[in-house]
């Protein structure tokens, strides 16, 4: 039996509806990625904070913004993630506006050796810091209660005209 053009269109619409409503799973939807958004942020050094915690949770062009202070460290803030089971990647999307001699580190707290471990150093003037960091041993960074602590740390005396703007900073388990 030969299907007419109208029946073919109807079949295609039914398939599209089934895909959109979740009745049919594709290979892509079968591979599930867990994203852990920030649960808490604490500022230990820095000023003129603009935004709130939710501004770091989605990649939407609205960021969490911290200016440096004229002391050392220029800024220091901790971002906590709760109920983390495992993660193998960090998605970091934002910009740093500083001078060529300024260094910002992105660090995770290693619960086994009780020290900060640097994942990346950001050096230079207006630098897009959109990056992903692969984590090979996440158990080093997960407390028994499921908390992970990240630190953004400006290592030297800051300049108040310099700032960090984070659009999204998430842990991912792929």
Please characterize this protein's 3D structure.
By secondary structure, the protein is mostly beta strands. It folds into two domains: 1-31, no CATH class; 33-173, Galactose-binding domain-like (Jelly Rolls, Sandwich), CATH 2.60.120.260. It is 12% helix and 42% strand. Strands 1, 3, 4, 6, 9, 10 and 12 form a seven-stranded antiparallel sheet that branches. Strands 2-5-11-7-8 form a five-stranded antiparallel sheet, with no helix packed on it. A hairpin with a 4-residue loop joins strand 7 and strand 8. The protein starts with a helix and ends with a strand.
Helix-strand topology string: HHEEEEEEEEEEEE
The mean pLDDT is 83
Number of strands: 12
Provide the domain count: 2
Head-to-tail CA distance between termini:
45 Å
CATH C-level category of the largest domain: Mainly Beta
The percent range for strand residues is: 35-45%
Computed structural class:
mainly beta
If you compute it from the alpha carbons, what radius of gyration comes out, rounded to the nearest whole angstrom? 21 Å
Biggest sheet features: 7 strands, antiparallel
Q: What percentage of residues falls in helices of 4 or more residues?
A: 10-25%
Here the CATH topology of the largest domain equals Jelly Rolls
CATH architectural type of the largest domain: Sandwich
User: What coarse outline follows from CA principal-axis ratios?
Assistant: globular
Low-confidence runs (pLDDT<50, min 5 residues)? 18-30
Helix count from the secondary structure assignment = 2
CATH homologous superfamily caption of the largest domain: Galactose-binding domain-like
């Amino acid at each position: 039996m030969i299907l007419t053009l109208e029946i073919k269109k109807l079949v295609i619409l039914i398939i599209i509806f089934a895909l959109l409503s979740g009745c049919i799973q594709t290979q892509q939807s079968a591979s599930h990625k867990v994203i852990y958004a920030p649960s808490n942020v604490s500022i230990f050094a820095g000023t003129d904070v603009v935004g709130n915690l939710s501004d770091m949770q989605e990649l939407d062009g609205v960021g969490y913004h911290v200016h440096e202070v004229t002391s050392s460290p220029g800024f220091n803030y901790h971002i906590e993630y709760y109920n983390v089971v495992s993660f193998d990647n960090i998605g970091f999307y934002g910009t740093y506006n500083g001078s060529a001699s300024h260094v910002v580190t992105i660090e995770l707290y290693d619960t086994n050796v009780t020290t900060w471990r640097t994942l990346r150093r950001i050096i230079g003037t207006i630098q897009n810091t959109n990056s992903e960091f692969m984590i090979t041993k996440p158990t080093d960074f997960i407390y028994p209660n499921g908390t992970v602590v990240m630190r953004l740390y400006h290592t030297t005396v800051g300049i108040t005209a310099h700032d960090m703007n984070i659009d999204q900073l998430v842990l991912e388990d792929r």
